[in-house]
Amino acid sequence: MGNGINIHDTAIISKDAELAEGVTVGPYSVIDTNVKIGPATKIGPYCTINEYTTIGKECEIFQGASIGSISQDKKFKGEKGFLEIGNNNAIREYVTMNRSTEKNGKTVIGNDNLFMAYSHIAHDCIVGNSVTIANCGTLAGHVVLEDGVIIGGLAGVHQFVRMGQLSILGGCSKVVQDIVPYSMVDGQRAKICGINSIGLERAGFSDEAKDSLKKAFKILFSMKLNIKNALKRVEEELPPSEEIKNLVNFIKSSERGIAR
Q: Which of 86, 123, 148, 178 is catalytic?
């Protein structure tokens, strides 16, 4: 263990856990074997950090969180899977995060994310950077969230679904197909409502980029074209740009189909 570590007398820490300098562990928290915690990370009271979990620097985990517990997948037979959490994440009260079902597989959390109270990250999910999941938002197994995604409270995302960069999902929504980048979606099932204008503005997208995306969304989601023909028109009629390329490639690579 490094220097400057502050562990409450009632906390239980495995002798095999690795705690870096400046780590704080609150009352009655339990840290299992084969856990690594980075510098200046704070573990609140009554938290459980299970084995094969790595947490980066300057994260804050609030009371009652269960981090790195085994998969809830019925196929899980005790395989050695992992959970890797990046830097500067806020993990609020009673959040649950599961490690991978697969042998030597990983559930991966990036940097600068906010997981509000009672949100759940299932086995084998991949969460990017600057993602926000509101209270009771739930990810099933193998979900992928790209950078900047926002998920509203009480929303559920089906297994193997992808949500593209800077997409935003309304509260209480149900997602069963891929959500394209830059979109605003809502409902049971979740459907496209338009582009995420506020998110794009906050991310520094130019007026030209936003206008181009609006035209692409009109072709893709308002003209009642099939996906193949809609993509063809987008590629032929709109000037090439990074955001249009990202949008087109996301749709072409979808295995579950996209919400429209």
A: 123
